[in-house]
């Protein structure tokens, strides 16, 4: 596998990709999570590796199998994902495609909550660390290129533009995940790439094609 990827514009570049959902335990048998198959993040990691990058693929429990030719770091929670990303640094670029749960249960039970004894559970939440924001705003050791995603159901460009500023990342890949688009859980994606240079609306295409185009753009940016 290594020999297959021994050439390409990303040879010698180390890139961290986060992907999939995170699972935040309620008790040993229950969790809260975001909807995410991991398909887009997996396709991006595969496309970067195909261009020669050394990819560290930090993945939550995804439906889609991780790609070949990458270093896989499997995690469950947002807090574990942050630690895995910090351990994987430094890197030339980071692509944060994971659907990280924004909240975790503040004190998960170490035994199964029972219907009969415990009544209705009163879950209290705590906010999870923002991995993209943490990496975007780190001074020394920040990857030269930090790419985030913004999955929105409404006011997509407006929300994604604000998100880019708030997080401090270089690029945001904005996509419309309103149920009518069928993108969530589907094989296609329709994205707008938001950078310093403005907004680029890409035509609707397969998730692999989005990944390849993004990988080419990352290669050009790291070369330039
Ligand atoms: N992200 C992250 N860590 C979090 C939450 C989000 O790294 N705890 C990253 C995602 O991987 C994605 C980007 O931040 O690249 C945007 O995620 P999103 O959920 O759209 O943004 P939030 O800031 O959580 O805002 P919202 O309230 O819209 O969910
Ligand atoms: Ca969120």
UniProtKB/TrEMBL annotation:
Pathway: Cofactor biosynthesis; coenzyme A biosynthesis; CoA from (R)-pantothenate: step 3/5; Cofactor biosynthesis; coenzyme A biosynthesis; CoA from (R)-pantothenate: step 2/5
Region (Phosphopantothenate--cysteine ligase): 15-224
Keyword Phosphoprotein among UniProt keywords: no
Catalytic activity, EC: 4.1.1.36, 6.3.2.5
UniProt keyword terms in alphabetical order: Decarboxylase, Flavoprotein, FMN, Ligase, Lyase, Magnesium, Metal-binding, Multifunctional enzyme
Stretches of the chain forming a coiled coil according to its record: none
Cofactor: binding details: Binds 1 FMN per subunit.
Molecular function, one GO term: metal ion binding
Reaction it catalyzes: (R)-4'-phosphopantothenate + L-cysteine + CTP = N-[(R)-4-phosphopantothenoyl]-L-cysteine + CMP + diphosphate + H(+); N-[(R)-4-phosphopantothenoyl]-L-cysteine + H(+) = (R)-4'-phosphopantetheine + CO2
Binding site for CTP: 102, 112, 129-132, 149, 163, 167
Cofactor(s), names only, from the UniProt record: FMN; Mg(2+)
Domain DNA/pantothenate metabolism flavoprotein C-terminal, chain residue ranges per copy: 10-220
Any one cellular-component term (Gene Ontology): phosphopantothenoylcysteine decarboxylase complex
A biological process from GO: pantothenate catabolic process
Functional note: Catalyzes two steps in the biosynthesis of coenzyme A. In the first step cysteine is conjugated to 4'-phosphopantothenate to form 4-phosphopantothenoylcysteine, in the latter compound is decarboxylated to form 4'-phosphopantotheine.
Family membership: In the N-terminal section; belongs to the HFCD (homo-oligomeric flavin containing Cys decarboxylase) superfamily. In the C-terminal section; belongs to the PPC synthetase family.
Name of this protein: Coenzyme A biosynthesis bifunctional protein CoaBC
């Amino acid at each position: 596998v290594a020999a297959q990827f021994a050439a390409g514009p990303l040879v010698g570049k180390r890139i961290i990709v986060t992907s999939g959902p995170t699972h935040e335990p309620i008790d040993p048998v229950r969790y809260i999570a975001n909807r995410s198959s991991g398909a887009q993040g997996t396709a991006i990691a595969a496309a970067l590796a195909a261009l020669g990058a050394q990819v560290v693929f930090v993945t939550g429990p995804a439906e889609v199998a991780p790609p070949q030719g990458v270093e896989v770091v499997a995690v469950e929670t947002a807090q574990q994902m942050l630690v895995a990303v910090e351990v994987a640094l430094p890197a030339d670029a980071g692509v944060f495609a994971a659907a990280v749960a924004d909240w975790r249960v503040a004190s998960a039970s170490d035994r199964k909550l029972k219907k009969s004894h415990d009544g209705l559970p009163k879950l209290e939440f705590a906010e999870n660390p923002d991995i993209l924001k943490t990496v975007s705003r780190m001074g020394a050791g920040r990857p030269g290129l930090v790419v985030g995603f913004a999955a929105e159901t409404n006011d997509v460009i407006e929300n994604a533009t604000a998100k880019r500023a708030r997080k401090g990342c270089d690029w945001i890949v904005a996509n419309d995940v309103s149920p009518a688009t069928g993108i969530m859980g589907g094989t296609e994606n329709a994205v707008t790439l938001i950078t310093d240079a403005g907004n680029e609306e890409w035509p609707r295409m397969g998730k692999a094609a989005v990944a390849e185009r993004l990988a080419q753009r990352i290669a050009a940016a790291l070369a330039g």
